[in-house]
Amino acid sequence: MNMSGKQTTALIIIFIYMALTIVLGLVVSKRKAAKQAKQSNEDFLMAGKSLGPLVLAGTLFAANTGGASTTGIATNVYSYGISACWYVIAAGIGFVLVSFIAPYFRKAQASTVPQIIGKRYGKASHIFTAFTSIAALFMATGAQIIATASIINVVTGLDFRTAAIVITIVVIIYTMIGGFQSVAAANLMHVIVITVGMAVAMFVMLGNQQVGGFAGLFAKAKTVTDSTGASLDLLSMTKIGIPTVIGYIAMYFMTFPTGQEIVQTYCSAKDGKSAKFGSLIAGILSAVYAIVPAIIGLMAYVCIDGYASGPQKNALADATMNFAPAVVAGIVLAAVVAATMSSASGNMIGTATMFTNDVFRPYINGGKQDDAKEIWISRVVMVIVGGVGLIVALTASNIISVMMGAFALRSAGPFAAFICGLFYKNVTQRAGFISIVSGTIVAAIWIYGLHTPWGLSAMVPGGIVALIVIFVVSAIERSMGVAPAPELELEED
Length: 493
Description:
- By secondary structure, the protein is mainly α.
- The protein is built from 21 helices and no strands.
- The chain has helices at 5-35, 41-46, 53-64, 67-80, 86-98, 102-107, 113-121, 123-156, 160-206, 213-221, 242-255, 260-267, 272-289, 291-303, 315-323, 326-364, 371-395, 399-411, 414-423, 429-449, 459-479.
- Helix 1 (5-35) crosses helix 9 and helix 15 packs antiparallel against helix 16.
């Protein structure tokens, strides 16, 4: 492997960043151990429910900002122009919308989505939701490993397989060492590097004479055409289409309340107010940040000769290596690694939490809580998630399809049942289960049978069907004298 001086510098900076992440996990873990001799599994996986709004916002933002939100946006500029940034703007809107119900996650006296579902709808719904949620997080972890390893592979020349293995080991170590507390602390570092680092790098790259600042970049963008001579319309903010934007917003609004890595963060808030304001801050941060990877991707397609011949694999990385100084390029790549690593670690923590709470404790350990044993089990699960994620990364290649499929299959079915479980008194147990299964099946057919018509997320048809089913079946059952499902007991802050 022969690397240029810039490639070597970038790789060194990335590895230094990884080392700092592991050290941070060790420091936080030791401080936690010094304060509390016996650490409970809730403390390990839920940060002792102690996160304030700023730490919560950073954790939410970092957990959601992964490969699709960085390299994915930059690459999609070819197809959608800078309107590709709607993928992350929609996430910001989703965080704002979910902020109004975020305090209820904290009050539900549960730490996983399947737990909340199971409390209202019974064992069958609990098991089905746990299975789909865990499977989705396996897929999502693999997607983040793909994104990180591909960046290192393309930019530095390091073998993809080797890069994937290194990334997996690093994420497992720092996640397993300190649990959610250390991940939350590392996520604050990730947020600073992602937002500040990439934003500064963007302006540095704009100053490159080949780019010519915003004025030069936008002027050149207007003249870029495809192989047929047609304008690519790279400056459009509407090219992506209204159905796709609506689908993105619906996807995030539905997946945030049913995605374990997000719900677990809300449940780790010190109180309901922190959950609400943390979500609002994360939403604003996401919406503002969205334009950064889009502008960097625009530089690649506009300023690199021959680049606009078709969508490329790593527009963000290629623009960075072409137009940024070596150190700045290293920082940008470290930011991408930070984003994908934090998302992968959130997935590992979420899977471990669901397995210990929804499988091990109720069905293997006879309903008994054993903190020491559960922490050990959680760490074993994290290693397994990393291993399965690595297999996914080495056998799949399309990060967007993996992520969208994971989101839809885990959330399209449970969303209606989850929201009704919190706010609708007259829902019945059987209606909840039928709704969850129906929405999941419709989402699967929409993706794998119909191949996502009109670019509309499977969340929309799956969620609509699930919502209709839960109200119709509940109404039919109540007319037959079936009692509503027991309501959730919400604790006060």
